[in-house]
Amino acid sequence: MEITGSEILLHTGSEKKMFPQRNVSPVLPWMLRLSLSFITCFYSATVRLNGTVNRSLVSTFEYFLKRPENPKPVHGVITLDKLIDSKRDLWFRLFIPTEFPSNDGNNKLPVIIFFHGGAFTFLSPDLIIYDAVCRRIARKIPAIVVSVNYRLTPEHRFPSQYDDGFDTLKFLDKNNFSGLPSNADLSRCFIVGDSAGGNIAHHVTVRWASKASEFPKVKVIGLVAIQPFFGGEERTESEIRLHGAPVIPSVQHSDRHWKMLTPEGSNRDHEAVNVFGPNSKTDISKLKAFPATLVFIGGFDPLQDWQRRYYDGLQSFGKEAYLVEYHNVIHAFCMIPDFQESFLLINEVKRFIWNQINSNNMFRIYAEETQKNY
Questions:
Q1: Contact assessment for residue 194 and residue 297, using Cβ atoms and an 8 Å cutoff
Q2: Of 57, 36, 354, which is closest to residue 190 (Cα–Cα)?
Q3: Looking at CB atoms within 10 Å, which of 39, 56, 65, 293 has the fewest?
Q4: Which residue ranges in the chain fall short of pLDDT 50?
Q5: What is the Cα–Cα distance from 172 to 181, expressed in whole angstroms?
Q6: CA pair distance 269, 277, nearest whole angstrom
Q7: Which pTM value belongs to this model?
Q8: Mind telling me the catalytic residues?
Q9: Who contacts 165 (Cβ-Cβ below 8 Å, separation ≥6)?
Q10: What confidence tens digit (pLDDT) does each residue in 201-217 have?
């Protein structure tokens, strides 16, 4: 890479491409910049160069950030934790809104299966940040939210995370556990995830779509990928342009986590990473049950080019796909109230969900505008 004046010269094999040089330093409140600096330092202290994680340090830190389940309404939402498999520590937190009726005129609410981010290595549904996000989603949509605690890397590599997500769908389909309210409509399920969770959401949706006939109750009618964590061997323009900017994840951190996820000897064109790349084994054009997809992109996210390729790939396979881009946000902005866009995102998700449910009334809203820029 060479920087000359107001342009970036990107070398891609034998090709040379010129890109306009943009501002690579987002305008962030000083408290947020301080928080990002702390996250970077904490990351350096917990992720070792040999690809292992100081799990004791992580657990000690997260202990003070956990929020227990609460069967009493908080901001109009109650929470319950449900165990699926103790051997895998596979469980989910159920978020049930108590004060809002369904938008379609009856008492039925859609079900959102949510996968948290954290580079496949960190975080869980009971941490304050994801408890707050899922609580807001449950209240604002409104919907029943199932936030999944899946196995983490590097202790558990591919395909453990996808297995856990798919097994959660099977568990819900059996519906033989207490706590799921009677107005939860499993025939109107949406799979949602941010960052690594967006990656998991895609792969779990592909698995469901390939075996949809085996699910008498769970019907997935929408996928929401919020800044999904995808990549590949190629270095994209956004990865190069945002190198060294005060944003997460850095290219180096992403590369490290791909190694921690994929099987030994794999590269970043593994099917888990580069979903429509040279090693992809699934032709989603043949999956008739693969649902409409809403993709969110941030202008200061190094992964944005891979996310655009994902959106383009969906369309090239003949799938219904919509793209919303917020130019002034960083990766994981959906968890940061400093960004007004974090609230706009909820509104877009709400509109997408009820659009899919009430397609006769609202389909034209998205059919006429498949891309949005803010």
A1: no
A2: 354
A3: 56
A4: 1-21, 360-367
A5: 12
A6: 6
A7: 0.89
A8: 195, 301, 331
A9: 113, 115, 148, 150, 200, 201, 203, 204, 207
A10: 999 999 999 999 999 99
